[in-house]
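Fig. S4 source data, part A: sequence.
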Amino acid sequence: MSQTPRAHSLVGNAEFAFTARDLEVITEIMRRETGVSLTGAKANLVYSRLAKRLRKLGLESFGQYCQLIQSHEGEAERMEMLAALTTNVTRFFREPHHFEHLRDKMLPGMARYAQSGGRVRLWSAACSSGQEPYSMALTLLEAMPDAARLDVRILATDIDPNMLREGEDGIYEDGLLEGVPPAMRRAHFTRQPDGRWRVSEEVRRLVRFRRLNLIGHWPMKAKFQAVFCRNVVIYFDGQTQETIWSRFVPLLDDGGALYIGHSERVTGPAEPQFQNDGITIYRKLGAGGKA
């Protein structure tokens, strides 16, 4: 069967034909499996990120690619597609005021609790390649130098297994450490033979990387004292955003902190359960209405 004429391609002078129907198939799979809403305005982004997959697979058009990702045999490639289209913009100590709040307002109490035998858990809910949870761990070690010997851990989750592998490796190019203070770099990073930097074992020991789809099943049962979920919910539709915020409520301790992205805000049924405690910082209210 002949392919849709190239004249109908959404991207002009492109290597591969890419039609409105192809974009519809891809965006529907993204919406169904990740909750991320892509629109026609994202056609160039979708093309640029997936064209390399077509080259690698030896395909001639996005029509063929869509047939593959909709088939049972294409499950592995479907996961590659989701990973390619997931935005992974991150850096160490992004939005520094969040880490200042964690250090000054949250960690003193967490440190006392952990040192008395309590269980302390933090969650980086869209960890990408690991800079966010490692920034959390570095901040934590400032307040609790003995954290690795206590019941203190950071859960780092993401939908993209490639990003999780990078996070577990904990190795970063020199330019990616720009946000790390010099003293912290000297204390917790080791220069590798290739010029990159590796996060210290002490820091890596605090973080556990796991794959998790925010619109899928959440296996966690115990509560967290702090959750970072930043610059990811903004890609979901309004109803999905409200659902995600509501799902955080029972997983946060009373007084626990939720840190979100600079363009996001908690809405829907979860909103009355939180008190604003700074720019894009929320504290969960307890039974008495206090954070």
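Fig. S4 source data, part B ends here. The first helix runs from residue 20 to 34.
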